[in-house]
Specification:
Length: about 550
Amino acid sequence: SITRHYTFNIQMRNITRLCETKRVITVNGKFPGPRIIAREGDRVVIKVVNHVPKNITIHWHGVRQLQSGWADGPAYITQCPIQMGRSYVYNFTITGQIGTLWYHAHISWIRATLYGPIIIFPKLNESYPFVKPYKEVPIIFGEWWKVDPEAVVSQAIQTGAGPNSSDAYTINGFPGPTINCSSKEMYRLKVKPNKTYLLRLINAALNDELFFKISNHTFTVVDTDASYVKPFKTDTIFITPGQTTDVLLKTKSRNSNVKFLMAARPYSTAASGTFDNTTVIGVLEYGGSQITPGNSSIKSLPLPPFPPINATAYVANWTNSLRSLGSSRFPVTVPQTIQRRFFFALGLGTNPCPANQTCQGPNGTKFAASINNLSFVMPTTAFLQAHFFRQSKGVYSTDFPTTPLSQFNYTGTPPNNTMVVNGTKVVVLPFNTTVELVMQGTSTLGGENHPLHLHGFNFFVVGQGSGNFNSTTDPTTFNLVDPVERNTVGVPSGGWVAVRFRADNPGVWFMHCHIEIHLTWGLRMAWVVNDGKLPNQKLPPPPADLPKC
Ligand code: C2O
C-alpha cells in the first residue's frame, strides 16, 4: 500500500451550458471534478484549499473512514466548514472496499457542481473477480441549473415550497443535444468492437433517482457502492442519488461505423407532476463513426425504450436482484444476532408558516421532512467535536425517537396533521452494537422515495417490501446469507427496507436522505458510536488543522 497525495483547490470557473455562461464552484477548475484513484489499502491524503467566498466541506461518499471520522466531511457533523482562504487535510485509508465511490461538497447545495469519482482498484497483484476490462470509464449523472443552485434552495426555504427543478440532467457534465441550445455539449464514448468495458456509474444528481440505458446493449452488474455483487444481466440500470454501480459492457463484434444513444431519465412515484421528466443523452461510437457534435444525425438515432417514469415493480425487482458476491476473499459479514432494533418512518411533513410571511407549501405551511416525525435541526458547531470533548450539552440530546411519535397506516390516507417536531437529537450506540434498522416510507404529501445514506458504514440490505412493515411475518423473509452491502438504499414510498450493520466505527455518523431537498427539509439524523475498550477501537484526537466554527 502507498500514500497518494492530492491537492484540491476550490475555485470559481466559467462554464458554458445551455448557451449560457455561469461561474460555478469547482475543484481545480474542473467540472466534474478530477478523479481520485487508489488501490484498496492505500492511504489517501487530500489537501483542500478554499479560494471561494463560501464555506466548503467535502465528503468522501461511501469511504468507511474506519477511525478517521474527522475526515468524513459533512458540515456541522464531523467538522466546521473550511472558510475562504483556509485549508484542511483529509486523511484516510481505503479498507476493504473496491469499485467506485465519489466525493461531493457537503454543505448547502454546493455539490451541484462540486463532485467527482473515487476509483478503487484491487491491491497490486490482485485481480477483479470478473473478466479484466479493456478500459474503465466513469459515467457521472448530474443536474444543471441555469441559475445558482444555492438561489434555488434559499428560495425553496423562504417560500416553504418545493424547489425549482433543474434545467437539464447531465452525463459527465454534458446535457446532450435533446435539450435546447446544448447541441455541442454531449458526452461521447468511443469504443472498439468485441471488448469489455467497465462503466463506473455514479448518480450525483441532487434530486432524482434515474434509469440508465444504452440502445441495443445490455450490462452485467458486478459491483455496487464499492462492494462486489453476484453478476447479473440487465438492460436498464436503476440508480438513486448517492449510489454507484459498476457494470460491464461488452461491445458488439462488427467493426462498422455505428453509433448508439445512451440515455438517463428519472424514476419518480410522486403524485405531483413537478419532476423534471427530460432525458439526457450521450452517444456510444464504434469504429470510425465519430460524428460532429451537433450533427443532426444524432437526433435521428432511436432512444432506448425506458420503463414508465413510475415503474415501481421494475425498481423493486431490480434492487431485489442485487446480492453480495460472497467470496472467500470477501465474505458476507451480515450480523446474525441483533442487539438493537429500530423502526424509522421516513416522510415529508410541514412546519408552520411564520407570522408576517406567506408560505407556498401545503395549505400555506412550509414543507419539512422527518424521521419518526422529528425534523432534524443542524447545530451551529460540529457534533464530532462536541462528542469528543464531552461538550454535548446545549448541542444535542440523546433522545432521538426510535419509533414514530405518531403512527398511522403508511399506505392508507395520511393523517390531517402533518406537522413535524423540530429538534437536534441523536442515537448513542455502544461500540460494536449490532443494529437492525427498518425504514418505512410513508406516503404523506405526494409520496416520494427516500434514498437513505449512512456515513461511516456499509449496511446489508436484508429485506424490502411494499406496504406496511409487519414485524411478525416480514423478518422471516430476511436474507441473512448474501444480502447486498451498500451505503445508500432506496426506501420506497409506501414500502419498507430493512438493513443491518455493526457499529464498529467510533464517531458521529450522519444518516440522511440523499435527495437534497429532503435533506434540506430535515430528513436526517446522527448516530453517535462510542469508543471501544481497545486502543484500535477508539477515535483518535482531531488533526491540528481541523476548522473552527
Ligand atoms: Cu453523499 Cu451525507 O452524503
